[in-house]
Specification:
It is a single chain. By secondary structure, the chain is of the alpha+beta class. The longest helix has 15 residues. Helix content is about 30%, strand content about 25%. It folds into two domains: about 240 residues, Glutamine Phosphoribosylpyrophosphate, subunit 1, domain 1 (4-Layer Sandwich); about 170 residues, Rossmann fold (3-Layer(aba) Sandwich).
């Protein structure tokens, strides 16, 4: 088992990007400092790059680069914001397409005939290729492969035909397709838009008299802001000197919040449409205990995303919950620019087993998902080495079988374990004594209590929105980035 090959980027469903914006109405607030604090709270959504753009009377100053928030937005780097403004947008980036370049770091600041704006984005534009070709034929020159730059170009093009920036953003949002939650700062306005399916989360809050928007509500907690509500699918929020304005751009055809936000991506302390992420994950664990009961001595989660579901499994089953793993938190989750052999060594350093907790015991281990199965195989191997007598693996997601076209790194269904093996074969490959996946319909029942539909396409192949016409793998070999 020492020769287990683990692809750190592909063997888990990785994060989305994180966006943040603030419009200051309280003079004592430092929009740059608050943006940095918010990005720390959103760091789990992306570790490839980080950045802030501050707007002072139409003059934009930005700091962005490849790296974690602590590496990019240092105290010395933040000094450039000494003359702070009233509007800021900020971003942490994850890209599933291995396109780590500084030009793709966000926020993007662009200058065009109508002025300047800054923008940052989360999601994946499915008609990216068609729109980019149209723009390039019209003379546009792109500096990156980001969706954000594409959206900015579309807004700038629309602006020449519209009276206001919000009208241009509205028309741009109608033109682009797919998954998008983005924030824009014009010289005098903060604008936030969510796609009509609601694939990616976006919420609005308040700190004093000032408004903030973010991918997750945990960003508000970190800066002392109050969560107001989620931005509705198809809604555009505009904040200016006159206050807060809501515009429904498109009526939702079908609500489709990414189910993986509840399984893995969102932080447990965030609130999404269906409620507390922590609570929903516990409910997933309870359902697993009903579907796949087993006699065991302890229940434990694979940290960190498996812990909440493991607690729910323990509560429902009556089996004691215990910690079986210690996670090394000083090994970053983003290793896309690290050579494969080193990736594997670092992953194997991430988890260690509390041997006295598992030796001679029947153990239920709860994890969030299985893509290729190599990570699960490694976890079972660690428990075997530590002396566990039985290992029963429970997964708080259904078997993954289909590509994701809306921002996650599930780009080739041919490589997914559940498409090449039956559950019994996968269980044997992993080396567990039993294996159980939660039923997708039960998950939808649990999340439906919040009144928001979900996208479960990576499990069912039921895509709620049109997917790219061209071959998916070929398209993303172009390294299109968030």
């Amino acid at each position: 088992m020492s020769s287990i090959t683990i692809d750190l980027l592909k063997d888990k469903v990785h994060e989305e990007c994180g966006v943040f914006g603030i419009f200051r109405k309280d003079s004592e607030l430092d929009v740059a400092a608050l943006s940095r604090d918010a990005l720390y709270a959103l760091q789990h959504r992306g570790q490839e790059s980080a950045g802030i753009a501050v707007n002072r009377d139409g003059q934009f100053v930005s700091v962005k680069d490849v790296g974690m928030v602590s590496e990019v937005l240092t105290d010395s780097a933040m000094e450039v914001f000494e003359h702070q403004g009233d509007i800021a947008v900020a971003h942490v980036r994850y890209t599933p397409y291995d396109s780590l370049d500084r030009a793709s770091s966000q926020p993007l600041v662009i200058r065009y005939i109508q002025g300047s704006m800054s923008i940052c984005h989360n999601g994946s534009i499915t008609n990216f290729s068609e729109i980019r070709k149209e723009l390039e034929e019209g003379g546009a020159i792109f500096q990156s492969n980001t969706n954000a730059e594409l959206i900015a170009y579309v807004i700038a093009t629309m602006r020449t035909k519209c009276d206001t920036i919000e009208e241009a953003v509205r028309d741009a949002a109608v033109k682009i397709e797919g998954a998008y939650s983005f924030v824009v700062s014009s010289p005098s306005k903060l604008i936030a838009v969510r796609d009509p399916y609601g694939f990616r989360p976006l919420c609005v809050g308040k700190i004093g008299r000032s408004y903030v928007v973010a991918s997750e509500s945990c960003a508000f907690d970190s800066i002392g802001a109050t969560f107001i509500r989620s931005v509705r699918p198809g809604e555009m929020i505009v904040v200016d000197d006159e206050g807060f304005h809501s515009h429904q751009i498109e009526e939702p055809q079908r609500q489709a919040l990414c189910l993986f936000e509840y399984i893995y991506i969102a932080r447990p302390d965030s609130m999404l449409e269906c409620g507390s992420v922590h609570y929903i994950r516990q409910e997933f664990g309870k359902e697993l205990a009903k579907e796949y009961p087993v006699e065991a001595d302890i229940v434990s989660g694979v940290p960190d995303s498996g812990n909440d579901a493991a607690q729910g499994y323990a509560e429902q089953s009556g089996i004691p919950y215990s910690t079986a793993f210690v996670k090394n938190k000083y090994i970053g989750r983003s290793l896309s620019n690290v050579k494969s052999s080193k990736k594997e060594r670092l992953l194997k350093m991430r988890l260690s087993v509390l041997r006295h907790q598992v030796r001679g015991k029947k153990v239920v281990i709860v994890d969030d998902s299985i893509v290729h199965g190599n990570t699960a195989q490694h976890i079972v191997h660690l428990l075997r080495e530590a002396g566990a007598s039985e290992i029963h693996l429970r997964i708080s997601a259904p078997p993954m079988k289909f590509n994701c076209y809306f921002g996650s790194n599930l780009e080739d269904k041919r490589e997914m374990a559940s498409n090449t093996m039956t559950v019994d074969e996968l269980c044997n490959f992993i080396g567990a004594d039993s294996l159980g996946f939660i039923d997708v319909d039960k998950m939808k029942e649990i999340t439906a209590k919040g009144g928001m539909g979900v996208c479960d396409a990576c499990f069912t192949g039921d895509y709620p929105a049109p997917v790219p016409k061209e071959n998916f793998v070929d398209k993303f070999s172009q390294k299109i980035s968030h």
